[in-house]
Amino acid sequence: MTSKLNQEEKEILKSYDADEWVSVSKPADMARYKLTAKNTLKKISV
């Protein structure tokens, strides 16, 4: 499966497999991150 991934995707997968990712536990934090992501997508017109 990893052969179809680009370099950035491979790095993300490696980071995830190394347990470098953590869940967002507070609803307020989740809302803030969600808003940040929406605003970022607006800026780059995706």
Quick take:
The chain is built from 2 helices and no strands.
Structure description:
- The longest helix has 17 residues, at about 25-45.
- Helices cover about 60% and strands about 0% of the residues.
- The two termini are about 25 Å apart.
- The relative contact order is 0.09.
- With about 45 residues, it is mainly alpha-helical.
- The chain has helices at about 5-15, 25-45.
- The chain has one domain.
Key phrases:
46 residues, 61% helix, mainly alpha, 2 helices
List the helices and strands and how they pair.
Elements: H1 7-17, H2 27-43
Which bin fits the share of residues in helices?
Answer: 55-70%
Please indicate the count of domains: 1
Tell me the overall shape: flat
Report the C-alpha radius of gyration, rounded: 14 Å
Strand content: under 5%
Query: What is the chain-wise order of helices and strands?
Result: HH
Report the span from N to C terminus.
27 Å
Largest sheet: none
* Uncertain regions spanning at least 5 consecutive residues: none
What structural class is derived from the secondary structure elements?
mainly alpha
**Count of discrete alpha- or pi-helical segments spanning 4 or more residues:** 2
Mean pLDDT: 89
Number of beta strands: 0
